[in-house]
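Bench log. Compound arrived from synthesis this morning; before running ITC I wanted a structural hypothesis for how magnesium ion sits in the protein. Inputs:
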Amino acid sequence: MASIVIMNAKGGVGKSTLTMALAETLAYYQKKSILLVDADGQMSLSLMMAPGNQLSEQRGNDLTLVGYMARSVLDNEHSDWPQYVMSHVSDVEDAKGIYLLPGELDLPLLEREMAAQGKISKTRAAARTILQEAEQYVDHILVDCAPGISVMTETWLRECDYHIVPVKPDFLAVSGLEYLRRFRSRNPEMGLAEHLGVIINMVNLHSTDDAIIQEHMRSDKDLKCFKNTIPIAPHLQKAALFSSEERMYITKYAGDVGTALRAVTNELQSLLNRNRKPDRVQSTLPPTNQLVT
Ligand SMILES: Nc1ncnc2c1ncn2[C@@H]1O[C@H](COP(=O)(O)OP(=O)(O)OP(=O)(O)O)[C@@H](O)[C@H]1O
Ligand SMILES: [Mg+2]
């Protein structure tokens, strides 16, 4: 199992969209089971992945990442994280091995409390528990983070095995990478996810500017840019809207985008295989609703 945090200090580069798309592509083509963690108070990933009524119910019962962290970190209560997980999210037919620990709008308030009470190491321990225990249930964990580096983002960035950085082909996106590089050089003793690579998203295949920026990024070997890129595709906006009726993968990710996602996902899987960690025996994630009383 690999845990991967999807982050970029820069906003709007496609972190949440790519987290969803990578999970659905891994689940659909490679039959991988994935735990998604929505670590962004904007909740984009949760809104994209889960039926609205189920998500409302989940939030009403405080069964979100924020609920889990509040109970285990601030209230010092023992809290079983699988009870907070939604099963079989995703509106894609045949991409059913996807689970979601949903986000909540109150995340910034929680982070403020965690920092005020000096609970950073406890927060990291709570995240580590999820990552370690999830190994027995799923093939991969993908964590979607807010832009910038907040308490929550730093926690996952330090606890996950790898990070992937989506970027848009613009010079400011490249400056977001510099931020991450500086962050890495600070407090190296605190641990940090290994950089798996940069995924260049929203590429206009007909733009010479985009080609120049790509070349510029690829000349920096430390960035480890993925060979394949994701084209700019207006219909991806529609993919973000959760469909109450199941849809086919090739409908949701039609044309070039689907082909590119498959290529990027194959590249990702071979990078992970190269850095292979020992296989663990898996069991099925308990049906969460049965755990919630
Ligand atoms: N390849 C693409 N082609 C066209 N639109 C895209 C593509 N990737 C993402 N988008 C769109 O760009 C916008 C930003 O994407 P997204 O919300 O995934 O970015 P983000 O990095 O998660 O943003 P934030 O920093 O706010 O969390 C969304 O409207 C999304 O639909
Ligand atoms: Mg996002």
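What the model suggests: The chain is about 45% helix and 10% strand. Residues 28 and 95 are 5 Å apart (CA to CA).
ITC booked for Thursday regardless.
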